[in-house]
Design a protein that fits this description.
Blueprint (H helix, E strand, L loop, with lengths): L2 E3 L5 E3 L4 E2 L33 E2 L5 E4 L5 E5 L14 E5 L10 E9 L16 E9 L3 E9 L4 E9 L6 E7 L13 E11 L4 E2 L5 E2 L4 E2 L12 E11 L11 H9 L2 E3 L17 E5 L6 E6 L9 E5 L8 E3 L2 E3 L2 E7 L3 E6 L7 E10 L3
Parallel strand pairs: 14-16
Antiparallel strand pairs: 1-2, 2-3, 4-5, 5-8, 6-7, 7-17, 8-13, 9-12, 9-17, 10-11, 10-13, 11-15, 18-26, 19-26, 20-25, 21-26, 22-23, 22-26, 24-25
């Protein structure tokens, strides 16, 4: 039986039977790690950010006010929604009254290369749908925003949490943006914001595209305003089309590689970078007899979004060092080379033969 794919109606057999729609073919979800399963930096440990800081992979806790919230994968230890194993959680450590210029939010930056088919900034702009599972100890109207950063234009949105401490499924219809110009390269294409306390400077009326850079909708509930208040989220999906489809679960290995385009490490998954390690995942080089210097070449797990910022660690977890004959030495920046596919550093201060060099690394090419 013949198959027909026309790019609009999906796959159709020659007897007229249709299987799926074009919007359901391939990768539907433009959010990476929307089910919060990858946590390379923190491995499930709690952080109390003093500024913008990554929590689980691809998700930034964004704030301009330090040390007001605890952020953690599976914060609070509640049971996730059916079908999910993880969520991203915030807990207010110190109640804070938000001023006009303050903001507390979770954000994901979506790369422009992953947005080109939305046709935003043209007359053919596609409608999109944002869906997610959310739980809070507070009830009321909460806010967020979609930000097309090249111009910028913002679509603030609201949703209502009706029952405290209960998972709730939310869908938000986002009309296509016909104005402005969208970045379609390896920079930021669009941003998805979930406000947990955003002042008037960064808030705007919900339900319509507006010119400017806003992070949430006017009147959104301030989670940070209540001591001990919680906000949990998972199953975040941003997709083309006007219907929220079931969450696009991808194989763990594929999801990890998608995260590693932006952040990679030599440490084993589940090990926090900068902690003491032995040989698990460490880069190794051996300086033979008569050698004067050494190099330590390596490749990243996947081509990164841009040339990354690399931090080396010795086996004790000391940054800016490598293990050499039991003593930490500083990598020679003059002979280092970083690309999007791999890197090496040269170590000219090791001149004797029979020396082993080992190092761990992190590489960040985040948006």
């Amino acid at each position: 039986m013949a198959l027909i794919y026309d790019g609009t109606s999906g796959i159709t057999f020659n007897d007229g039977t249709q299987v799926g729609s074009a919007s359901q073919m391939g990768i539907r979800n433009r959010i990476i790690n929307g089910h919060m399963i990858i946590d390379q930096r923190n491995a499930g440990t709690n952080i109390v950010p003093t500024g913008n800081q990554y929590s689980v992979d691809r998700w930034v806790y964004a704030t301009n006010t330090a040390s007001k919230m605890n952020i953690k994968q599976n914060q609070g230890g509640v049971t996730p929604p059916a079908g999910f194993t993880n969520y991203l959680g915030a807990n207010t450590a110190t109640a804070y009254t938000v001023t006009s210029s303050d903001y507390f939010a979770f954000i994901q930056n979506i790369e422009g290369y992953n947005c080109f088919d939305l046709a935003w900034g043209t007359a053919g702009a596609k409608t999109c749908t944002l869906s997610f599972w959310v739980q809070s100890s507070l009830t009321g109207t909460f806010g967020g925003a979609i930000n097309a950063t090249s111009t910028p234009y913002t679509y603030p949105f609201t949703y209502t949490i009706n029952s405290a401490n209960t998972w709730q499924y939310v869908t938000i219809l986002i009309p296509g943006l016909t104005s402005g110009t969208m970045n379609l390269t390896n920079g930021v294409g669009l941003q998805v914001w979930f406000g947990m306390g955003v002042g008037s400077t960064y808030s705007a009326a919900p339900g319509a595209w507006t010119s400017g850079n806003y992070l949430s909708a006017t009147g959104g509930t301030s989670v940070v305003g209540t001591n001990g208040a919680t906000f949990y989220i998972t199953g975040v999906q941003f997709e083309k089309g006007s219907v929220a489809t079931p969450f696009d679960f991808r194989l763990y290995g594929k999801e990890l590689l998608m995260c590693q385009r932006y952040y990679a490490k030599s440490y084993a998954q589940g090990t926090v970078p900068g902690t003491a390690s032995i040989y698990n995942g460490a880069l190794q080089s051996y300086v033979g007899t008569g050698s004067s210097g050494a190099s330590l070449p390596f490749r990243f797990p996947v081509s990164m979004r841009a040339v990354p910022t690399i931090t080396f660690y010795d086996l004790a977890g000391t940054s800016g060092k490598v293990y050499a004959n039991g003593n930490g030495v500083t990598p020679d920046a003059q002979t280092s080379y970083y690309g999007t596919d791999g890197a090496y550093f040269g170590q000219t201060s090791v001149t004797s033969g029979g020396v082993q060099l080992l190092a761990q690394y992190t590489a960040s090419a985040e948006l």
